[in-house]
């Protein structure tokens, strides 16, 4: 009996020990489970749930000295921000006005921007440091736009300003990143030889503001400064200038507001003082001066009998060719519309089969002072047949013809049918040209005449009467055209259809208050000139045969009456000719006349 009791006691103790162990494990596992849930819960609460994105630019929290400080005597500026920042192209975007001889050293230390000055500042002068859009926060790239830091080395801060806009004189579009420069020196030599007293840079919309300047009379310029020296010293640089001096001033006005305080009618007067700086709408029209120089740009011999001469500008006088190693006086000359290139054709095989043709070219040229004189250049024009395996000798059908309009296309009723030959034509056999139209499902032969273009001697226009909505076919059989070397064309053909009159729209413009000579141009949406009219009095003009779509109208004040827009010239004190655009939408619809009243502002 005792033994059984002892056994039960031993078994109980083993069970108790085992239960204690399992209980501890259960409790531990339970604690671990609760801990995991708690951690996960905390983690979920701490994970961002796609909150609002930071769109705020960096903020200045402190600076040494303070912004708009007076009597500055140091050589270092420290500006601290509320977050880490990065600098983007700060050396090119920072504008210091008045400009410094040496660029300051810009660096970052933590959240602080440091500007180290490399020179002593002028006494009693207000300096502004315009960082443009160079300061950006490190995380989201938010830009601190047009941040300006101002200090004065004297007892006062100059507070006047000049503001306005810079536009392209030709297109009237705003000009961005243009230096606007103010001078106290009013000599004509500025801005060619003197750096400005104050500067600013135009923004994307063309606007500018030269701030913190003192009261004085200023000469004002805008400059697209190609070499970053604040001087108009390159002929590739664009410039704008005002004909008169600018005098900035401030206008102080007092606004009085009456506020009702209670039901008894007692009121209070609040006086608010407002300061407005003028001028605030200066217009600077930027232009590139016309290049009046004249010289030979290049020359080449593209083919045996084709000599090409290119000039940098339109030729005012015809060129002369004097053969030196051959005798020939039957050159065929082909000019282009802009008169800046010349093609010379040779039709004598004994001449054009020579490897080298030595020619004395006489043409109008300008010297270093811009004066014209006749120059004589000796040119050696060589031609070598291209070598290569399997190269075949040139065939007699080498003459190429291009037909316009192209096959399976439309011909507008105000356009022409024409062909372009690859070389001058010596003979045309019209019996080998078949020109037909479809009439009642039958091909009808068309009567026509071929007229050589007065400018392009290789272009021939078909003079014929075209009906609307009609299909035409042009077949040019081989040997219809023979060029000056005896080569002839392969056969070619094109079929096209004329448009219906109802397809087109028309724009009628009533031009009023005309002062001088005007050029009115119709443009497409890409600013390509489609057509133009000339007038010198109030007049109604029209542009017809217009395809449905959107168009623009532009007017040019043609001061010198040469039927083209002319740029300005600072040395001659000539502004670019004025332009104006019609601001409302011009939408042309088929079979519709659109009438417009316009008073161009020139």
Distance N to C terminus: 131 Å
CATH architecture name of the domain at 396-498: Sandwich
What is the CATH T-level topology of the domain at 396-498?
A: Immunoglobulin-like
The description of the largest β-sheet is:
5 strands, mixed
What can you tell me about this protein's structure?
With 602 residues, the protein is mainly beta. Among the domains are: 60-152, Immunoglobulin-like (Sandwich), CATH 2.60.40.1220; 296-382, Sandwich (Immunoglobulin-like), CATH 2.60.40; 396-498, Sandwich (Immunoglobulin-like); 503-598, Sandwich (Immunoglobulin-like), CATH 2.60.40. It is built from three helices and 45 strands. It has a five-stranded mixed sheet with strand order 28-37-35-31-32, with no helix packed on it. Strand 39 (518-523) and strand 40 (529-535) form a beta hairpin. The longest helix has 45 residues, at 2-46. The protein is elongated, with a radius of gyration of 40 Å.
Descriptors for this entry?
single chain, 602 residues, mainly beta, Immunoglobulin-like, five-stranded mixed beta sheet, five-stranded antiparallel beta sheet, 3 helices, 45 strands, 9% helix, elongated, disordered N terminus
